[in-house]
Design brief:
Elements (H helix, E strand, L loop, with lengths): L5 H17 L6 H20 L3 H23 L3 H19 L20
Length: about 120
């Protein structure tokens, strides 16, 4: 019987992180978080396409990542980024209301609907 590959993959990932951390090659936690948020925004837009949902979510994820990086690395004030982020989110939400922006499409169902 074939077993799942989850445990070996987790062990490999944890070992790589431990190795990078012990050799001081792993960036700080704030930098990693900033990179992950920025990458999540780009990946969400690439996978889900351009629609009303990703018009707001993707730029905000990328903005949050950039703000965390700027606050941590450049020492800028978080209150400025919070205020600018609220303005950016409001503008994006207003633009998303436009009829020219397509609605989010539903992913195809893999299971047949249940009769409850």
């Amino acid at each position: 019987m074939k077993r799942g590959a989850a445990l070996p993959i987790v062990l490999i990932c944890l070992g790589c992180v431990w190795l990078l951390k012990s050799t001081a090659l792993l960036p700080s936690t704030a930098t990693l978080l900033a990179l992950l948020l920025f990458a999540a925004g780009v990946l969400l837009l690439a996978l889900d396409g351009f629609n009303k949902s990703t018009l707001v979510t993707s730029p905000m994820l990328a903005y949050t990542g950039a703000a965390i990086y700027a606050i941590d690395q450049l020492g800028l004030r978080a209150s400025h980024f919070a205020a600018l982020g609220m303005v950016l989110m409001g503008v994006l939400m207003l633009v998303a209301r436009s009829d020219s922006i397509p609605e989010r499409r539903e992913p195809p169902r893999r299971l047949p609907p249940r009769d409850d």
